[in-house]
Amino acid sequence: MNPVSFNKKLNEARRLLESYSFSQALPAYEKLIRQFPRNARIWVEYGAAAGSAGQLDLADRAWNKALELEPGNSENLLQIGHQYKGLRQLEKARAWYEKAAAADSGGINPRMALAILAEQNHRFAESHEAIAACLAIDPRDDQARYYAAFLDRRENKLEDAECRLRDLIASSPRHQYVQYASRYELAEVLNRTGRFDEAMQMLLEAKNLVRRLGDIEMMLKVYDQEAGQYRRSSQELPKDILRTWAREFPERVRETLPKLAFLGGHPRSGTTLLEQILGAHPDVAALDEPQAFTMVVAKLFNSSQQISTARLNIIRRRYLEAIQKEWGGGLEGKLLLDKNPSPTAKLRIWLRVFPELRVLIALRDPRDVVISCYFQNLPLNPFSANFLTLERAARHYADLMDVWLAVRQWEGLTWMETRYEDTVADLEKEGRRVNEFLGLEWNQAQGRFHEKSSKKQMYSPTYRDASQPVYARSVARWRAYEKQLGPILPILEPYCRALGY
To answer: Tens digits of per-residue pLDDT, 107-140?
Structure first.
């Protein structure tokens, strides 16, 4: 095969992989490896396609083949580690990061990956050790200096964190992520130490840097189109739609699933905290932002206009298969809790496929939600682009809650709202109320949820907060920023009124 033809076929396989068309990407890569069996990079990408398609054994074989072909290729080994991390195979990710580090004695990136993975699993000593190794290689490395400050802030060494961050920012780091991430971190330190105006100024600097990373206007256009579609489609459905769907898809023809509950609400409304409390119950399989709904249910549902009984059952079956892989164990006798704020906008799909679904919605003062979202340093995409301004953050809140306010009026819906403020005020009282809704007895381990949370990997961006005992410092946080929030309060006022805030 000539180079032009090879590159064309490789780019086509990559396009399929990047567009999540895994069933098509796999045969495309299989043809390439038959023709180029000694190309380690193709084996790496073939493994990525296999892993994303749920064929983990095939992924293992492909990546081990890449290792056999190029055992000293640190970049390949690092990418395989990232793939395992994305598949939530954390011990395997760690092993491959270690291979990558061993293959490159001067490599910063594999040691940074080890530091980040250790921190996310609350192993601070290991994370510090990995960062120290990075700084020994290059004391001026932007990423390592940033992460050293980040660890200080995580361990509440705020004065040390501030000193490191100010020195880093003053040195004009070249690493693009560090440029804005260091300012987000410093804003959080300033917030924690009561310097609220300075915090907002630092956030403004961070967000101006983020704006340079992409076409924000186009991202927001993409978001507005999708959000508007889900909002309108939910608001236009009649209040008796669930009864119609139940007649079309009665219980007797549905494939049996474990008891299923969806935990949603707007991001930063306390969903992660509540998921951790519920997940401490021995009879609950609580999944922290699993990929199964987005990658299986929504994708299959939207791929065809045909909504037959057979198709709905296929989607249910594929969802359960995906959840079982993510959970990594048996679900017999357990309540399956799928916690994921963003798919709240797609409740009409949830309820069409899973009519028996229990819907649990976490609420928090809308003003606290918006200021909390504004402080988040998230990867830039059409969703997170909304949090670059307070006005867009408020409108994002309105978009999602408009869906919920419409859906909660549907007749026959099994639903409950729970308030973050009530959980913080009396964890056991609110926890018992939520348990009762889910058909569970209170378990004493739920009151000590943080003991379990502090020893495991979580996937929500807010995992650091939910691994601590309940604290009240985030209640009415918005009042410290009332001046900045003033122009957007009219947007939020109808939701404060509707939700009782």
So the answer is: 999 999 999 999 988 889 999 999 999 999 999 9
**H/E segment holding residue 467:** none
Render pLDDT for 266-304 as a digit per residue (tens, 0 to 9): 999 999 999 999 999 999 999 988 889 998 899 899 988
Q: What would the pLDDT profile of 29-41 be if each residue is shown by its tens digit?
A: 999 999 999 999 9
Cα angle 363-368-374, degrees, rounded to a multiple of 5: 115
E-state strands within 185-332: 260-265, 284-288
Q: Are 324 and 227 in contact (CB under 8 A)?
A: no
**Phi, psi (degrees; rounded to nearest 5) at 155:** -95, 15
- H-only helix segments in 328-415: 347-353, 366-374, 390-407
Residues whose CB falls within 8 Å of the CB of residue 361, separated by 6 or more in sequence, listed in order: 263, 264, 265, 344, 404, 408, 415, 416, 417, 418
- Token pair, residue 454, equals 């502090």
Measured CA to CA, the distance from residue 38 to residue 311 in angstroms comes to 41
Closest-CA residue to 345 (of 308, 382, 390, 388): 382
Average pLDDT along the chain? 92
The helix (run of H) or strand (run of E) holding residue 415 is strand 414-419
What is the amino acid identity at position 100? A
The amino acid sitting at 435 is: N
